[in-house]
Every structure is written in C-alpha cells, then in structure tokens.
Amino acid sequence: MKKQVVHLAIYDTLADWETGHAIAHINQRQWQREPGRYSVSTVGLTLDPVTTSGGVRMIPDLVLADLDPGDSAMLILPGADTWIGGDTLAPFAAKARRFLDAGVPVAAICGATYGLAGEGLLDDRDHTSNVAYFLAMTGYAGGGRYRDEPAVTDRDLITAGATNPVEFAREILGRLDVYTPEVLDAWYRLYARSDASAFEVLQAATAQ
Hints:
Helices cover about 35% and strands about 15% of the residues.
C-alpha cells in the first residue's frame, strides 16, 4: 500500500479548532479501513513559522509553490482572519483551483470558503460557510448554490462553517474513505453527540 499525503495549509491566524478532528483521525490508525494509508503534511506560503489564532507556532513542511495536485490526496484549507480584507492568501485559492481542475479534492472551512468564493470556485457548486451574507461580501455569483447546512460536499469540494468542525471532519474522512460507512457513522455519533452506543461499534472495528 502506497502512503498518500493529505496537505494541510497553514498560515498566520489559522483557526486551531477547525481542522483538529480531521487531521487527528486521518493520522490515527485505529478504526481505519486501511490503517496507515494517509499521512498529513503542512504547506505554507514560505517555510517561515506561522502563528495560529491560539498562539501555537507551526513550521510548514512544504512551500505552496512546490505543491503538485498529483502528489496529494486532498488539500485542506482552514479558516483564518488573513483570508479577509486582503489578498495574502490568494495563492492558496489559486492552488485550490488547480486541485479541483485536476480532480483532487479540496476541503475549506470558515474564512477559506470566503477565499474560494472570491476565486469563483463556489459559483457552480453547492456549498456552505458561516452564513450566506459572509460570502455575499465577496460579490461572488454563487449565492443561489448556498446551502444552510453544517457541511456540504459537491463533487470534489467540501465546505463548512466555523462552528462545524466535526461535520467538516466527517465529510473529509468520508471523501478519503478512511472508515467503512458503519464506522464513520459511529465516529460521528460519538464525537458530535457523545453517543455512548457508538463506542461499541468502534470497539468492534478495533478488534477486527
């Protein structure tokens, strides 16, 4: 089995909570259909350290300019204050276009959906975000495709709002086929609803 890399974009003011569930369980072998199939690598505009919203210092593994969609299983774009009010992170939106054109999935949450809207990537896809008027500020043409849901997947694009990191992770894990459908359902019930009965399903998967 060839290990595949999921790329996590990192930049200043990255919202720490938005991708934690997804990247932790991509890397955690427990319950997985093919344990160890994926790894997570970080990508930045440069190799300079970035500081998250929570004050965590992170150092990118890779420079964005060197990231080829053909070498990636997915690009995950967290939210950040730096998506709004400037074009600092525009290169990430442009790279997302390259990924989607190549048929490689992209997952964007919170402010990253704002950046993708500005890039025109939400004009012809069902999508969601924090609220509809948040994206409307970009002047994009996709307002009619907005869905008031925690997370939405349309073709190779996953979108979610800032308060829905578990639903965002569920869509990512499902798109990557990390778990069987039964295990993914149990995973979601446990982490989103604290459903104790779901743990029995996960324990059974561990024993296999």
